[in-house]
Every structure is written in C-alpha cells, then in structure tokens.
Amino acid sequence: MPESASVYEAVYRYATIENAEERARVVSQLIAPMVARIRDNPMGISVNEDPAAVLESDVTFSEFLQSASRQEHWMQLPCSALRLRPGLFSALDSMFGGFADATLIKSDCENMTPPLPALEQLRTAAIDAQPVCVGTIRYALAREFDKRYVAILLHRMELLKDDTPQNPTERKRLVTVSRFMAQHQTQVDAATLQMTAYYAHGFGVSPKLAERHATRAVQVMVGQAYQLCITG
To answer: How much is the pTM?
Structure first.
C-alpha cells in the first residue's frame, strides 16, 4: 500500500537528514498517512496521533515502526538505518510476549552484511541443541535472539551486555552453555577467529580488542540461544 512505501522513505530520511528541524518537517509529512491508518485500527499498538510527536526520539519513532509493521506484515528495517541511528534497535524489541511479536518489523542485516559461515554454523548448532518449545512466548524470545544477532553483526557491543539476574535457573543455564561450548570448541574457535577479522577489518577495531569483542559476541549468541525456550 502507498502508506508502507512512505514509511520506507521516512526511515531513510529519518536516518540521513542531520538537521533536526528539517528531519521533523520531512518525515512527519511522510508518516502522516500511516499515523492516520494506525489511529483508525491500532491492532494492539497505538501511537501519538501527532506525527511530530512520533519523531521526538528514536524510541518513539521505533514504536511507530512497530505499529506500522502490524498494518503491513513483513516490513523490514534497513540495516543502513540501524548503522546510522543505533537508537532504532528499539524497533526490534518484543512488544507482546507472544505470537504477535512474529508480525513485527525485522531488519535485513543478515542479507546486507558479509557472509559469516563459521558464525552461522555455530548459531545453527546452538539453536538445534534447544528442546522443542510450545509456548507462544517463544516468539518473543526468538525476537530477542534475532535482535542480539543483529547487534553482533553491527558490532553494537553495548547491546551485548549480560544483565540476566543471577538465580539458580540462570546459573544452571550458564553451566549448560559452557558445556555446549566445550563440546563444540572447534566451531567456537572458528567463529571467534572469523568475527575477530570481521570486527578488525569492518569496524576499525584493533586486533586485540576485536578478539575480545568477538569472544564476547560468540558467548552472547550461544547464551541467547539457550533462552529460546524457557522451561522454568
């Protein structure tokens, strides 16, 4: 629909126009039709009816993108926008804690970044090691996993902090993660080596720091896989 085309242009303009006043003027006009559509049929996520208010911050614009994607399923957030405006990572958050999260906007970063076969193979192995999960919360957990993976691809280390509370369930999970990594040490080493080069060459990070960041990224990816199915 025309509204979704305007939203994609709005994302581009939002990420590339540096002057705040000019950005607000241009983008508010582009998103006005979708804001009106959401107002008439919010589908679980409402937004401010004033397009200018939607542009108050990356968070409010991210909420708009999530709501717009409920109107137009399978919308994709351009990876270039996430590079230019990291605050838009909020658009990749879970909103519902259930199946509806599967309909929210996703990024196209996996298609827009260089192939990382060693990392992808380890990711597949970690996912395959998880039990079959039946609760609808799995859609929200998968969304968090995908967001962390995009953060890894774009070297957003601030999004790879481990803030999980240390309780018996979490300690048990960490033991299981450590066991998996030990059993897949060859794949872990290959992924870490690949990501070290990726960070050093693609993001201008020193080799030593790139290795630390790569090690952290691999640990977070595997650890997040072990949160794809919460069983208690």
So the answer is: 0.93
